[in-house]
Amino acid sequence: MATGTQLSEQANAKRNPFLRWINLREGEGERTFWMFAFYATTASGLSWLEASAVALFLSEYGATNLPLIYLASSLIKISLGLMYSSMQRLLPLRWVIVVTATLIALPLLLFGLGLKHPLQITIAGFSALQCIVFFMQLWVEASHALNDLNASITANQLFNVREIKRTYPLISSGILVADVLSGFSLPILLKFLPRDRGLPMVILLSFGLMMVGVGILIYLSQAYQQFFPDARRRRDEGRRSDAAMPKIRGSIRRYTTVLQVFFGLGQVFLLLIEFQFLSQLEQQQSAFALQANSGDIAGFLGIFNGALGICELAMQWLFSSRVIDRMGAFSAVMLLPLVVLLLSGVSMTGLIPVFVGVLILRFLYELLHYTLFNSVGPFLFYSVPEHLRDRQQSQVRGIAEPMATAMTGVVLVGFVSVGWDNLGTNGHNFIFGLLIVLALGWILSIVFLRRQYVELLVLNAERGQLSGSDVDLRALRQTVIEKLEKPGAEADKRSCIELLSQIDAKNIGEALAPLLTKLPSALQHKSLEVMLNFPNSAHLSAVKGLFDENPAPEVMAVALRYIWLTEAAPRIDQLRPYLNPKIHPIVRGTAASLILRQGDPKQKAEATNTLRLMLTSPQKQERVMGCRALGDALYLQALRLYISDLLQDPSLSVRCAVLEAIGATRSEEYYPSLLKGLHFKSTREAAKSALVRLDNDALPMLVKLADDLQLSDLVRGEALSAIGQIGSPEAIELLIARLQTSWGNQRRNLLRILLKIPQDQGIETVLDRLGRQGIEQMIDQELMLIGQVYAALADLLPERVRGREADLLRRSLQDTPTDGIERLFLLMKFLYPISSIQAASFNIQSGSRRNVAQGLEILDNTVDISSKRAFLALLDRDLITDKLQSLSELVPYTPMRPHDRVKYLLDLRHFISDWTLACCFHLARQARWGLRSDQIEACLHYPRGFVREAVLSYLHLASPKVLVEILPRFERDRDVIVAQQVAAMMKEFGVPSSKKAEKSSQKPKHLRVL
Predict the structure, then answer these.
(1) Beta carbons within 8 Å of 504's beta carbon, 6+ residues apart
(2) Given phi > 0 = left and psi -120 to 50 = alpha, else beta, which region is 929?
(3) 125: CB partners within 8 A, 6+ apart
């Protein structure tokens, strides 16, 4: 325990206070800063470009031509999206992001120079200046989408799925900071620039900022090459996934369809409100003392964007997460259509001027859109299986938003063609009416989205791929109630209950209590069991209502327990009828245990007698139910007299039940029986379950068992597994404290246990305590060991060392890299999506060339550790020399003589397997090689008997004199084979035997061995 606490304190002491304050871990700060700088720089450049382009466009074309921009920009967005996808197949990703950022910036140079030195030519009746203004506005619409996509993909490469949740809110706030800085700086900048050339200069400055962003991307792509795959991205046709199952595939298809409607409507609102705003700005210039000069319009837009940016920053940093947490994601995002409904309705009534209504609507909608809407956006994809999430997100956002832009453009073009300028207020009222209709449709889409979201969550829960951070509790609770009320498969409803119990166990009674009488018996029992974890008197009437329907005995028993443990003043005398021998044993035992908890002395005596009769009954079911009832009682009281006999009961079910009762009643005198129960297969699970119920009280016992090197790996592993199932912070700390100091099978067991702890607590705590650097250090250790093993295989080739012992050593060494690669995949699950690592591991282990290539590609696109190249080459190469070359940076290979290599392996005895260690001594004996005394002495005390046997065999040949001196120390060796070997050697050398060790024939106390 002390070790885990010290480790935690050291980790916290080393952690940067500033990083802790902004919720980042060590190693994430620099990447987050550079991504923030990139996003803020490019967004500032685009903000200046947008304000300038809008001002020039309104001056040259007016707001009525904006729908043409929407139409054309949608086609360009789709084309750019296809181009971006194509580039990923032609170039490595780290070059794709740089080329894309450069392509976004280059047109700005042409626009600035074209405006500064316009050509005196006419194209299709339009001047060169008008063409530049049109294409500049078009490029503004397209470049925003492409820059956001580029930034999102870069961030996804630099940060894994766990890191992105902490870092991306900080990165995305770069665009808000850019709005503030660029917005307020633009009017000041225009004052110091010549009036006739102000905007061209601003656009050239925008180009400069964009190129600074390109420079940052070049630095990121070179400094963090390991985060980007070298291979060009190909189709992952070979990836096998249970998402191909018809049930979940259909759910994903329905969900993504609703998502497309949801995001499409969000884009429609953004464009319609922008059209209204710019139309009013063009018409109402005099209201703000603006002249028709485009520089003044740009200055006003800069101030507006700056003020909006300040509010967005405050909203994002102070309120967004709290609003989403308290209201739920779906309720929070519903604020957007509600704001549109309210302000559009008020504006149509004429209570406020149209411009004021549009100005407020534009301000509030963009405030909510770029904070709540953008924050909720990634969350909506969390219910999609992890390995499909990025693909679905790019498809939904890449298709829905451009299509919505095109449709909005078509509608507005048609509307303008009938005479927008002549409609006046009626035209704006038409837009307001359209907004109201669409807002109602958006609300309806959010309702459907919530239902499909929870349905997909339930399917993920059935497959065990869900964590607590992936859900909106309010939406989930409401949808679970609806799903349980409707007819459906019992398995689906059970999954709903289990899902809710995992994520919101404290308030689960609110959802399940009203439904108890409508559920089948099995689900009633399941519901009451999870409700018992957090009983609430408010649900008593619903539970009591079950007794009117003559419930099944299992349901009646758990309902009795719920009622009498929840009521403030229960009437114990009402339980006495249930003590009748004719009552089902499970109900009778439950009633007796409840009376033992809360009854008076007379009632307790009667309950004790009932349980006594059950525990001594000749019927196995009576004894089993009696033992389970003991577990529900607070204390064993007089019934503890029967425990010793029950521990040796002929029935395995009875013995397991009494072990669980010992854990439930915390009977300390019988704790040794729980520990002994871990040694035997028949009682292992029951003993472990009982120890887990003891929670932190069991940790000292389990730690002592896990650290006992004399015990088998199986028993030590079961002790560690029990610590993991306890899952408390103290238990996790104990596991982490042993993770870095363990090796081989124990490290593998620890990694598996930590990965299985629910809600990713083990993963998050390991990352918090050890950090990414600590995980990478262990990965490098594994790779270094594999390198040493391959070096040994290269030096111990059959042509250099022959014989049976040499073959055994080579065979044992060949198994070591396989074990090391397994541990490497386990370690990587702490850094990357588990499903991706599992898919890669499955493909690589299949042996098929195509599957291996597929697995390597998955790893190339997922892994970003510093030793990534060495790891991929290790999996890809076949020859030992090639593998050694790939690991040369970590483990430089120096050829050795076979004799020296074996001695070097013995120096690595803490890392190689026990069998490999024994084979080294057998080979040294057969080849008559001399070994150092410190190596011999250390291995003489090795926990495994076959290692000690190998050392004694070596000494028999290498140094009989030394062997004779030490043989008496091993005469009573705990390993029977070693003891027999020593006896034979003592007889051979004529060493007098001491008093023979007494053979204990006693059976383990309290526990019968089958």
Answers:
(1) 473, 476, 477
(2) beta
(3) none
**Of 463, 458, 472, 312, whose CA–CA distance to 380 is shortest?**
472
Strand partners, 127: 122
> Which of these, 367, 373, 39, 281, lies nearest to 182 by C-alpha position?
39
Q: How many CB atoms lie within 10 A of CB 64?
A: 19
- Which residues are CB-contacts of 178 (< 8 A; sequence separation ≥ 6)? 39, 40, 41, 43, 44, 46, 47, 309
In this structure, are residues 408 and 66 in contact, taking their beta carbons and an 8 Å threshold? no
Which 8-state DSSP code applies to residue 582?
T
Walk along the chain (1010 residues) in steps of 10 and give the mean pLDDT of each run.
Answer: 39 56 73 89 87 78 73 78 76 85 88 72 60 80 79 78 69 80 80 70 88 92 80 45 54 82 86 81 56 59 80 78 72 87 85 82 86 74 64 68 81 69 62 88 87 69 48 62 74 79 78 85 88 86 84 88 82 82 88 82 85 87 86 72 85 88 85 90 90 90 88 88 91 90 89 89 88 89 92 90 91 90 92 82 77 78 83 85 87 90 91 91 91 89 88 89 86 85 86 54 34
Q: Residue 189 to residues 42, 185, 195, 302, 934: CA-CA distances in angstroms?
A: 18, 6, 11, 11, 77
CA-CA-CA-CA dihedral for 767, 770, 773, 779, to nearest 10: -90
Which DSSP category does 759 fall into? G
3-state class of 236 per DSSP?
Answer: coil
Contact in structure between 356 and 288 (CB atoms under 8 Å): no
CB-based contacts of 803, cutoff 8 Å, min separation 6: 923, 926, 927
3-state secondary structure 797-826: CCCCCCCHHHHHHHHHHHHHHHHHHHHHHH
- Secondary structure class of 1001 (helix, strand, coil): coil
Measure the CA–CA gap between 974 and 380, rounded to whole angstroms: 60
For residue 171, what are its two tokens?
């990165």
**What is the secondary structure of 39-73 as a DSSP string?**
HHHHHHHHHHHHHHHHHHHHHHT-GGGHHHHHHHH
Six token digits for residue 543: 């539970």
Q: Which residue has the tokens 């009696």?
A: 626
**Ordered alpha helix ranges (H), 418-547:** 420-423, 425-462, 473-485, 490-503, 508-512, 521-531, 540-544
- First-to-last C-alpha distance (Å) of the chain: 34
Token digits of residue 618: 């000749």
- Cα-Cα-Cα-Cα dihedral sign, residues 643, 645, 648, 649: negative
- Coil/strand/helix, residue 507: helix
CB 41 within 8 A of CB 213: yes
**Dist. CA 58–CA 55, nearest whole Å:** 5
209 CB neighbour count, 10 Å cutoff: 23
Burial tier of 527 (Cβ tally within 10 Å: 0-12, 13-18, 19+): buried
> Half-sphere exposure of 204 toward its Cβ, with a 13 Å CA cutoff?
12
Q: How far apart are CA 217 and CA 96, in angstroms?
A: 10
CA–CA distances in Å: residue 514 to residues 409, 485, 507: 50, 10, 13
Q: State how far the Cα of 156 lies from the Cα of 386, in Å rounded to an integer.
A: 13
Q: Which tokens hold the place of 106? A: 């280059």
| The three-state (H, E, C) secondary structure of 624-650, written as one string | HHHHHHHHHCCCCHHHHHHHHHHHCCC
**Contact (Cβ atoms closer than 8 angstroms) between residue 293 and residue 282:** no
R_g over Cα of the chain:
36
Looking at the DSSP bridge assignments, the partners of residue 126 are 123
CB atoms within 10 A of CB 895: 9
Residue 262: both structure tokens together: 């949801």
368 burial level (CB within 10 Å; 0-12, 13-18, 19+): buried
Residue 560 has a CB neighbour count (10 Å cut-off) of 21
pTM for this model (two decimals): 0.70
